[in-house]
Design brief:
Blueprint: H1 10-28, H2 45-55, H3 62-76, H4 83-99, H5 102-127, H6 132-213, H7 217-246, H8 263-272, E1 276-282, H9 290-310, E2 315-323, E3 326-334, H10 348-359, E4 363-369, E5 376-384
């Protein structure tokens, strides 16, 4: 089964037509390149028409067109010869390098160069006249010259294609980086909003439930005072984050992010919300890298929020210890059934704490722990002080 020949490119059709018409015009005015050859008269039209037909294949079958064109141009030397036939042959050699396979593009210049040298030496040995060099020069002009030009153009084209591909890959990588940055920023905002709001809303939910379930004016008043305090604090935290998100000018500094220096106030707030909390700080916990200090604060905050929502009655202990090149945060709370109101939870708090720790290259553990005094839920995070250089703000 023979595959149909590919349709010629429209530019190749134009080149073939121009070459044929030009050759006919030169023949019409009686202009030939060779005189006194074996085949005289209209015989030069045979290679002219054949070369014009091969021009139709210069882009679709470049290797075949170059090989057949070589035979045609040799046959043309037995006629009066047409300049149009020779010019079309040079175009076939150029196209064979430009549109052929990479292997052909490497071989053709070498082959035509060797042929040029061989023709020059052969005619020198045959004629023993300096004019033989002109034959070699003419051979090089119609074979090696177009092939070398094709190599230069092909290399330029390939480099341009590589640059376009590199530019497309760079744009794709930039888009992927942008998408990843957007995803990371959304996750960061989700963690920050959860950690800021969950603690206050949990206290509000618990105290409002208590106020509704216990019909005592003193209890109701205390619950409402606590609800108001947590509402105000939550709104202040929300304003801080919204101010950071809206401020794109860079002219003003946003409010400072929480650090371990604020743990005392955080613990006092938890006590006001009804938790029995003890805080222990050991080692030099001041002057920490900002991402580490913020992550440690948020982990303690979220752990206290979870204790407020889920812990059984008993003492909650918060321990922050700096040793060597890391800081450890451990929060232990009673674990089991509890009486009284319970705030709902989504499980996002543990996910957020784990993500914060992972961004800093630390370790995180959360789960029940055996204890002689009863069931204990322990949250432990170890944060290295030397954070990875590519993580940015873990908030």
């Amino acid at each position: 089964m023979h595959l149909p020949l590919p349709r010629p490119h429209r530019d190749d059709v134009r080149i073939a037509a121009v070459g044929l018409l030009g050759g006919l015009a030169l023949w019409g005015i009686g202009l030939g390149m060779n005189q006194g050859r074996l085949l005289d008269g209209a015989w030069l039209l045979v290679p002219l028409v054949a070369m014009s037909a091969l021009e139709l294949l210069r882009r679709t079958r470049p290797r075949f067109a170059a090989l057949a064109g070589t035979l045609v141009v040799v046959a043309d030397q037995f006629t009066q010869g047409s300049l149009a036939t020779v010019l079309m042959f040079t175009d076939l050699m150029y196209a064979a390098v430009l549109y052929g396979t990479p292997a052909a593009a490497r071989r053709i210049p070498v082959t035509t160069g060797l042929i040029t040298v061989a023709v020059t030496l052969g005619f020198l040995a045959w004629w023993r006249q300096p004019e033989a060099v002109l034959v070699g020069v003419a051979t090089g002009l119609v074979s090696f010259g177009p092939a070398a030009t094709g190599v230069l153009v092909r290399n330029h084209r390939d480099r341009a294609a590589e640059e376009r591909l590199r530019a497309e890959q760079t744009a794709l990588l930039a888009e992927m980086d942008r998408a990843q940055a957007v995803t990371a920023e959304r996750a960061r905002m989700a963690r920050e909003l959860h950690d800021m709001v969950a603690n206050h809303l949990s206290a509000i939910a618990i105290h409002s439930t208590a106020a509704l379930s216990i019909d005592e004016p003193a209890t109701t008043r205390t619950a409402l005072e606590t609800i108001r305090e947590n509402s105000v604090d939550g709104l202040a935290e929300m304003r801080r984050l919204i101010g950071i998100l809206r401020d794109s000018s860079g002219d003003t500094e946003p409010a400072a992010a929480p650090t371990l220096d604020g743990l005392g106030a955080l613990v006092e707030q938890s006590r006001a919300n009804g938790l029995d909390v003890g805080l222990t700080l050991t080692g030099a916990t001041g002057n920490l890298p900002a991402p580490v200090g913020l992550a440690a604060y948020r982990i303690v905050q979220e752990s206290l929020t979870n204790a407020l929502k889920h812990a059984a009655p008993g003492r909650v202990t918060v321990t922050v210890h700096r040793s060597g090149e890391r800081i450890e945060v451990c929060v232990r709370s009673p674990y089991g059934d509890r009486d009284g109101p319970r705030a709902p939870g989504s499980g996002a708090g543990l996910v957020g704490m784990r993500e914060r720790t992972a961004l800093l290259g630390g370790t995180f553990e959360a789960g029940p722990e055996a204890d002689p005094g009863g069931k204990i839920w322990r949250v432990r995070a170890a944060l290295p002080l030397e954070t990875p250089s590519s993580e940015g703000d873990p908030a």
